[in-house]
Amino acid sequence: MQTIVTESVDVAARWLNRGEVVAFPTETVYGLGGDITNEKALENIFAAKGRPGDNPLIVHIHAPEQIQDIASEIPPTAEIFIQHFFPGPLTLILKKNTTVPNLVTGGLPTVGIRCPAHPVANEFLKRCNHPVAAPSANISGRPSSTDWQAVYDDLKGKVRCVLKGPQSTIGLESTIVDCSDNPPRLLRSGAVSLESLRKYVPETLPAAPAETHQQPKSPGLKYPHYSPSAQIELCGGGYSDCTGSANSAWIGLSSPPEKVSKIALCKTPEEYAHKLFSFFRECDREHIAIIYCEMPPEKGIGRAIRDRLQRAAEK
Ligand code: TXA
Ligand code: MG
């Protein structure tokens, strides 16, 4: 299959409305979209990524009003999160409407819904005839794609169209909070921090620690994730101090050990998040053997970075 790369939201939306799979930019990471009413498109998303069928897709919308077509119930806690964080890097899990196909939700009675805060994503989604089911636009298990070249490297020949936009500003996938139960529970950390969710709904429960992911509420959490080919070594913040080694790289907030050959020194946790996945991919292109990753403090987006690093190191 020939993969078309375009900057035109019209062209991209036309392909999607014809039942094709289209990658598109968002502020978190690039998504791999298909029309939620088109079974073939949904199947093609799973096939292109090599994604297990029990791992559900997030439904993307351009306006909060569309939620009532997807969810059967919007509890008060969800209303509060929608009011404060939509559009943005937050996915809400709600009880699904009967019209949402089981292929989207992996057979679950709930559905993930996100309204991206990204002008290109927003324009694209507006032109799509129906809401768009989209996982991250990467081969399953690989780091998510934060620029169109990464999407193209992973998926060329497997998807019809890549909508080219700027590099994702946040760089980590959305925060997922399950509002289908009371109190709401964080399932995946992201740029909308636990602290900011609790500011509006103080009883919001934290995400279960990484060790309990064998029986996760969010099916995706049990699969390996975010892994570059290089070995990941976690450093600092309770982990050992890294000494460095030949053909290694360092990403973190403080000064690297002496012996590393490639360095991403980040001034803030936000910059760390923004750079993380593209740095992993760069290291792979340069055949780096070990990436030393400094664990950031466990607050704000630091929680999301720690989560991705722990799971990248697990493989
Ligand atoms: O930022 C993001 O969320 C990106 C962009 C493209 O929106 N998407 C993304 O999708 O990261 P994906 O498929 O890579 O991750 C979605 C996660 C998976 O872990 C999946 O198991 C979980 O969301 N999920 C989806 N629907 C769910 C549901 N009904 N209940 C629990 N978890 C769900
Ligand atoms: Mg993903």
UniProtKB/TrEMBL annotation:
<feature type="binding site">
    <location>
        <position position="136"/>
    </location>
    <ligand>
        <name>ATP</name>
    </ligand>
</feature>
<dbReference type="InterPro" id="IPR017945">
    <property type="entry name" value="DHBP_synth_RibB-like_a/b_dom"/>
</dbReference>
<keyword id="KW-0067">ATP-binding</keyword>
<feature type="binding site">
    <location>
        <position position="144"/>
    </location>
    <ligand>
        <name>ATP</name>
    </ligand>
</feature>
<dbReference type="Pfam" id="PF03481">
    <property type="entry name" value="Sua5_C"/>
</dbReference>
<dbReference type="InterPro" id="IPR038385">
    <property type="entry name" value="Sua5/YwlC_C"/>
</dbReference>
<feature type="binding site">
    <location>
        <position position="55"/>
    </location>
    <ligand>
        <name>ATP</name>
    </ligand>
</feature>
<dbReference type="InterPro" id="IPR006070">
    <property type="entry name" value="Sua5-like_dom"/>
</dbReference>
<dbReference type="GO" id="GO:0005524">
    <property type="term" value="F:ATP binding"/>
</dbReference>
<protein>
    <recommendedName>
        <fullName>Threonylcarbamoyl-AMP synthase</fullName>
        <ecNumber>2.7.7.87</ecNumber>
    </recommendedName>
</protein>
<feature type="binding site">
    <location>
        <position position="174"/>
    </location>
    <ligand>
        <name>L-threonine</name>
    </ligand>
</feature>
<comment type="function">
    <text>Required for the formation of a threonylcarbamoyl group on adenosine at position 37 (t(6)A37) in tRNAs that read codons beginning with adenine.</text>
</comment>
<feature type="binding site">
    <location>
        <position position="188"/>
    </location>
    <ligand>
        <name>ATP</name>
    </ligand>
</feature>
<keyword id="KW-0548">Nucleotidyltransferase</keyword>
<dbReference type="InterPro" id="IPR005145">
    <property type="entry name" value="Sua5_C"/>
</dbReference>
<feature type="binding site">
    <location>
        <position position="134"/>
    </location>
    <ligand>
        <name>L-threonine</name>
    </ligand>
</feature>
<feature type="binding site">
    <location>
        <position position="114"/>
    </location>
    <ligand>
        <name>L-threonine</name>
    </ligand>
</feature>
<feature type="binding site">
    <location>
        <position position="226"/>
    </location>
    <ligand>
        <name>ATP</name>
    </ligand>
</feature>
<dbReference type="GO" id="GO:0061710">
    <property type="term" value="F:L-threonylcarbamoyladenylate synthase"/>
</dbReference>
<feature type="binding site">
    <location>
        <position position="110"/>
    </location>
    <ligand>
        <name>ATP</name>
    </ligand>
</feature>
<dbReference type="InterPro" id="IPR050156">
    <property type="entry name" value="TC-AMP_synthase_SUA5"/>
</dbReference>
<dbReference type="GO" id="GO:0005737">
    <property type="term" value="C:cytoplasm"/>
</dbReference>
<feature type="binding site">
    <location>
        <position position="51"/>
    </location>
    <ligand>
        <name>ATP</name>
    </ligand>
</feature>
<dbReference type="GO" id="GO:0003725">
    <property type="term" value="F:double-stranded RNA binding"/>
</dbReference>
<keyword id="KW-0547">Nucleotide-binding</keyword>
<dbReference type="GO" id="GO:0006450">
    <property type="term" value="P:regulation of translational fidelity"/>
</dbReference>
<comment type="similarity">
    <text>Belongs to the SUA5 family.</text>
</comment>
<dbReference type="GO" id="GO:0000049">
    <property type="term" value="F:tRNA binding"/>
</dbReference>
<dbReference type="InterPro" id="IPR010923">
    <property type="entry name" value="T(6)A37_SUA5"/>
</dbReference>
<keyword id="KW-0808">Transferase</keyword>
<feature type="binding site">
    <location>
        <position position="60"/>
    </location>
    <ligand>
        <name>L-threonine</name>
    </ligand>
</feature>
<dbReference type="GO" id="GO:0008033">
    <property type="term" value="P:tRNA processing"/>
</dbReference>
<feature type="binding site">
    <location>
        <position position="28"/>
    </location>
    <ligand>
        <name>L-threonine</name>
    </ligand>
</feature>
<keyword id="KW-0819">tRNA processing</keyword>
<keyword id="KW-0963">Cytoplasm</keyword>
<feature type="domain" description="YrdC-like">
    <location>
        <begin position="6"/>
        <end position="192"/>
    </location>
</feature>
<dbReference type="Pfam" id="PF01300">
    <property type="entry name" value="Sua5_yciO_yrdC"/>
</dbReference>
